[in-house]
Amino acid sequence: MTEKPTEHGPPAQNADTRPTEALPDAAAAAGAPDPGEAPGPPKPNIHVSALIVWLTIFPLVAIFGTLLAPMMPDWHPVLRAFVLTLIVVPIAAYWLMPQMFRWYAAFARHRVARRANGSAR
Hints:
121 residues; 0% strand; single chain; mainly alpha
């Protein structure tokens, strides 16, 4: 009962990443950035991500729900929700949310640069 658990092996390779054999050294294999590269902004935490998603989804649902309401007044609520999500989700997922996250990244880069310039004084 008090046996030491077995160690886990390395994580499975993702389909969208290069194989570790192609990486030049251990630092690159560990995902460390190149020293010559400028560091990117930190990824948004879960709360910021939730806020960005909400700021994207709520206006779309409100706008398209209002626009579509006169066309489907007698529809079952589940069917109305189905049609609404068929319209809103692709718009949000493929167009607006990537744009919102790009805007957040630009804002975060600007904030990091401003802090770096302020601390250098």
